[in-house]
Amino acid sequence: MLKDEYEWVKQTRQVLLDQCKELNENDFTKEFGFGFQSLKDSLVHVAGCYHAWLGSFVLLETTSPLLTKEVISEMQIGDIQGYFQQADKYVDTVIEKFRNNFDVIIERELAWKVDSGAVRKTPHQLLMHSITHEYHHKGQIVAMLRLLGYIPNNTDILGLPEKEFATDDN
Fold first, then answer.
1. Which pLDDT band holds residue 167 (cuts at 50, 70, 90)?
2. Sign of the C-alpha dihedral, residues 147, 148, 150, 154?
3. pTM above 0.85, yes or no
């Protein structure tokens, strides 16, 4: 069930990424007074959330899940798409690995934040946080596109064509 739902998240994200591929560099990196300042930085921030909470905290697959400003400044849209693809692998692994114990509490410090203190969360909470976090910032990204004069493509799950909205359960 969660795999199907996450497929919808990926499909609607791809709509946004495809639109961003068409932007010139100035529009893609233009800074605004809200969110993570630019479309580019916002997208990297969204993917980073999956890397931090799922890849690092839950799966312990990385101790430095967040990218430096220097790395981000060199990234192109294809690199960002790759960063999301790795995030998708983390999601798949979490869903598979914790299928039967999705609500078990994990307690540990954050590898990416020194002296964070112990954090107690379940894989289920952190997956839901990562997805809702993405949709929160997706709204900001859509607002940025509008401010740049673009008409954003529909990124709502209900806007997916019927053939794409179908799941394996149907």
1. low
2. negative
3. yes
